[in-house]
Amino acid sequence: MSNSLLLRILALAERIEPDREAIWEWFFRTPISPYGRTAYELGQDGEGDAVIAFLERAIEASNTSHLDVIPAQAGIL
Q: Hey, which of 55, 64, 70, 71 has its CA 20 to 30 A from 38?
């Protein structure tokens, strides 16, 4: 895995989780669904783009405001 890929993954992960110890734990030990492999393993296997896409989707989902969702669910909008 290139240093630039690693830095990009870690920068994106830090936007989700500020605790660097938790990021390293996730990076090395938590399999990403649906791949069944960790971010480290995916990066080593040349699939770092999948990790970046996963993190970008997570960031996008976390940026969705509850206020945008609740009125639509209640039929207000």
A: 64
